[in-house]
Design a protein that fits this description.
heterodimer; A: four-stranded antiparallel beta sheet; 10 helices; B: mainly alpha; 11 helices; binds adenosine-5'-triphosphate; binds magnesium ion
């Protein structure tokens, strides 16, 4: 068997253009096996676009991506086997029950029958939705849907878990609880976590390394301490602002956040 | 195989859970059967055509299959917009299998809808020449359903949202139906109409149904089958290709 590479995600010179617009601009970085890695950046920075390329949903205009030793462009299914993902936007089937959504996922990922039911039960209990397992997802609140999506991303025991702003729309309790669980998972099972967030405290608290991205370019990569030192600032928030500059987009950001939460509530 | 099955199962569950949609989509075929069947019946009989309801029923059965099939195919756009498609597209399975599972599911739903319309038409007075051939008719109905679900899937793969839906209904689905010989016999028609009917795959589906159920066929059931299977193969290939190109 091939020795497992130390770097589980490798990205070389990746660019994504939508027409004339460059959403991700010549980005390179890697993520170590077992690491918690965060993408931090304002709205429209290119975080989601990067995650979509890493998860084979979008094809890069140029550049190379390797996921767990597999070329994401050539061996798509090989790459897909190694990760789970929680999307920024909703991705459940509202007309199915919680249980059916998870079951569907388990079949797609060929989780053996024997472990399937046990794992679904465990995960549903973990996100406190076991009692609601037979309710249709359309009857769920935004936060409940989010929890269900997180449970779903874990069913097949992925080596990498992509979390695109996983805590959006969650109350502080659930948010704390979720991060605790994710850190635990990272420690006990060695799952690599790749997350994006606007919340600097979150990145500061959970991530071992942080990449700050703006206008499709990575400004800098390092530990929270390194970033603060580099920008001679006290908090990660100040470091973030020192690097991305404009305070205005922060407000734009929270407005967009509110809209998104609003939208989720409407979709109930 | 299990992926195809679970995708098929999902379509069926969604169908049986939307009773309003099932009942709602029966209104139109029922209206056609009653208004046209009884409205034109006397003239048709006078012209020496025989029982018009018998002639019309296969056409209306095919119509309800056509509409349901295209619609379930196009539903992929909903999945795109409500996000569920992402979940299937990141899974480690081939896109061809996803497309096949969906198409089989959609086609099963459309066939069921056709069966319901067939049952209704029996109550209105549709009688079979050869009741034993019901099974073969079911095969034809499923073929029609597969063809138009695949067509819907292919279209949905290249559309971003439901905005184009009206366009497709009015300039593709309606012409497919009205120019197919669902409502009138294909014999002795003006050249232009018969030429169009000849390139409309639905014509062959309806012709096969009539051939099997009431023993009247314009093209011959053998040819009908060959055309249907050929068109299906082409549409499945195009649909799979377009589906595999989806980026979201
Ligand atoms: N399909 C698309 N077509 C055209 N432009 C796109 C498309 N997807 C994203 N973009 C653009 O690419 C840029 C980056 O978008 P992306 O969603 O990656 O940002 P993000 O960092 O995830 O932002 P947010 O914090 O708001 O989620 C934005 O300017 C967006 O408008
Ligand atoms: Mg985003």
């Amino acid at each position: 068997m091939k020795k497992e590479t130390e770097k589980i995600i490798e990205v070389h010179g990746v660019t994504k253009k939508f027409g004339d617009f460059t959403a991700v601009d010549d980005v390179s970085f890697d993520v170590k096996r077992g690491e918690i890695f965060a993408f931090l950046g304002p709205n429209g920075a290119g975080k989601t676009t990067t995650i979509k390329m890493l998860t084979t949903l979008l094809v890069p205009t140029s550049g190379e991506i390797t996921i767990d030793g597999k070329d994401a462009a050539k061996d798509k299914n090989g790459a897909r086997k190694s990760f789970g993902i929680v999307f920024q936007d909703p991705s459940l089937d509202d007309e199915l029950t919680a249980m059916e959504n998870l079951h569907f996922h388990a079949v797609l990922y060929k989780v053996p029958k024997k472990t399937r039911d046990k794992r679904i039960e465990q995960l549903l209990k973990l996100v406190e939705l076991w009692d609601r397992r037979d309710s249709l997802v359309k009857e769920f609140s935004g936060g409940m849907k989010r929890r269900l999506e997180i449970a779903r991303g874990l069913i097949h025991h992925p080596k990498i878990l992509f979390l695109d702003e996983p805590t959006i729309g969650l109350d502080p309790q659930t948010r704390n609880y979720l991060w605790k669980y994710i850190e635990e998972l990272n420690k006990s099972e060695g799952i690599t976590i790749f997350l994006t967030t606007h919340y600097m405290e979150e990145a500061d608290k959970v991530a071992q390394r942080i990449a700050i991205i703006d206008h499709g370019k990575i400004m800098t990569i390092g530990t929270s301490a390194e970033l603060k030192k580099q920008t001679k600032t006290e908090s990660l928030e100040d470091a973030f602002l020192a690097l991305t500059g404009k305070q205005i987009r922060e407000e734009e950001g929270s407005a967009k956040d509110r809209m998104r939460i609003h939208r989720q509530m409407w979709r109930r | 195989m299990s992926t195809i099955y679970i995708l098929w199962l999902r379509q069926l569950k969604r169908y049986f859970r939307s009773r309003a949609r099932i009942v709602g989509s029966l209104g139109q075929p029922l209206l056609f059967l009653l208004a046209l069947g009884f409205g034109f019946g006397p003239i048709y009989a006078k012209a020496g055509g025989g029982n018009f309801i018998e002639f019309l029923a296969p056409g209306i059965i095919a119509m309800s299959i056509l509409f349901t099939a295209v619609f379930t195919g196009i539903e992929i756009i909903w999945d795109k917009q409500f996000g569920f498609l992402k979940e299937t597209l990141v899974a480690p399975i081939s896109r061809v299998n996803i497309m096949l599972g969906r198409t089989l599911g959609g086609a099963t739903v459309a066939t069921l809808q056709g069966v319901i319309v067939a049952i209704i038409s029996f109550f209105i007075g549709f009688r079979l020449e050869h009741p034993t051939s019901l099974l073969l008719a079911l095969v034809v109905m499923f073929l029609i359903a597969l063809i138009f679900t695949a067509l819907g899937t292919a279209i949905a793969s290249v559309l971003e949202d439901m905005q184009g839906f009206q366009l497709i209904m009015n300039f593709l689905v309606m012409p497919l139906f009205f120019l197919s010989g669902a409502l009138f016999p294909l014999d002795n028609l003006p050249k232009a109409i018969i030429t169009i009917a000849r390139i409309d795959p639905l014509s062959y589906g309806i012709d096969a149904l009539r051939g099997i159920l009431i023993g009247q066929s314009h093209f011959g059931v053998m040819l009908d089958f060959m055309v249907l299977i050929g068109v299906l193969a082409i549409l499945l290939a195009i649909g799979s290709y377009l589906f595999s190109q989806i980026e979201i």
